[in-house]
Amino acid sequence: MSQPQHDVSLASVYQARRRIAGQAVRTPLVRSHALSERFDAEILLKLETQQPTGAFKLRGAANMIAALIERHGRDALEAGVVTASTGNHGRAVAFAASRLGIAATICLSRLVPANKVAAIEALGAEVRRVGESQDEAFGEVERLVSERGMTLIPPFDDPLIAAGQGTIGLELMEDAPDLDRVIVGLSGGGLLGGIGAAVKAIRPETRITGVSLTHGAAMWESLQAERPVAVEEVASLADSLGGGIGLDNRCTLSLVREVMDDHYQVSEVAIAHAMVDILEHEKLLVEGAAAVGLAALAEHGIQVRGQRVALILSGNGVALETLDRARAMCRR
Ligand SMILES: *Cc1c(COP(=O)(O)O)cnc(C)c1O
């Protein structure tokens, strides 16, 4: 077999599972009675909301930091790890680094609210407030990498990150070996790419369905253009799906193209209904990005009758004001 371009093999996903054991949780896959009735299918929910940081991103971050320690020794990470995410990835890096005894620096613009800053500091990371935008915060990350020798832990575009997220795929195949379809929120592609690499290696006929936003979906545009393109970022209930894929993307664009079978875009109103449905019927609080699988089923009438389908409930990082906004959209 030829070497895949993206370097996310089933073996690398098993390696990731060994490395993250004890840090990330093996999450439950539970049957939704309400959704199974509604879609005349067996709808299974993968509860990444139960990760200690509230989202799956801990899998990738823990795998990458542990792999770097394994390969290069603890001394190589003496200057610490660094990233600039304000959301689930920043929390994951702070958490994993502190567990592994590595210093972490998270660069945040001055626009990031105090409660988010405090949450990251509480995990033992050093927070640097720089600039007025995410771009300026990234500039500081680059400076710390080149001048201080810190190690960047990217949010998605690395084979170790994707392999970590791919451990979800292993768990799905163990808990539902005859799964027909997985529906996954798609932004940078570490989550879908990793799950797809694992699932396709074990059961190629299982369909991998990606769900993107209608506006500002960089991966959607990049797949159309067959090269990474930048898009304007638009506010969304699913804020964790915002952001670009990197104009120098080297891993996830080709990986997603290889493993994804079909791809849908969902509207804000469909996301709002899905968030509220999951809260009301499953009694689970999920963020918008975690509700897009249900939004796609409802909005596009994807044909799933009689199938076993897994939805990845990817995270629970939602502010109550955002939930209020979603509820208001459902009442209109
Ligand atoms: C990051 C994130 C995603 C998307 O993952 P990618 O690897 O960027 O495609 C989906 N849901 C949540 C909750 C996230 O934090």
Question: What is shown here, in short?
Answer:
The protein is of the alpha/beta class and 332 residues long. Helix content is 46%, strand content 14%.
Task: Give the topology, please.
Elements: H1 10-20, E1 29-31, H2 33-39, E2 42-47, H3 57-72, E3 81-83, H4 88-99, E4 104-108, H5 114-122, E5 126-129, H6 134-148, E6 151-152, H7 159-175, E7 181-185, H8 190-202, E8 207-213, H9 218-225, H10 252-259, E9 262-266, H11 268-282, H12 292-300, E10 308-313, H13 320-331
Parallel strand pairs: 2-10, 3-4, 3-6, 4-5, 7-8, 7-10, 8-9
Antiparallel strand pairs: 1-2
Helix pairs in contact: 1-3, 1-7, 3-4, 3-7, 7-8, 8-10, 11-12, 11-13
The protein binds pyridoxal-5'-phosphate.
Mean pLDDT: 94
CATH topology of the largest domain: Rossmann fold
Structural class: alpha/beta
**Count of structural domains:** 2
> How many helices?
13
CATH class of the largest domain: Alpha Beta
> What would you call the shape?
globular
What oligomeric state do these chains adopt?
single chain
Any ligands, ions or cofactors bound here, and which?
pyridoxal-5'-phosphate
If classified by CATH, what would the architecture of the largest domain be?
3-Layer(aba) Sandwich
Terminal Cα span: 54 Å
Largest sheet: 6 strands, mixed
Strand order of the biggest β-sheet: 1-2-10-7-8-9
Domain Tryptophan synthase beta chain-like PALP: 25-315
Pfam families: PALP
InterPro entries: Ser/Thr_Dehydratase, Ser/Thr_deHydtase_PyrdxlP-BS, TrpB-like_PALP, TrpB-like_PALP_sf
Cofactor: pyridoxal 5'-phosphate
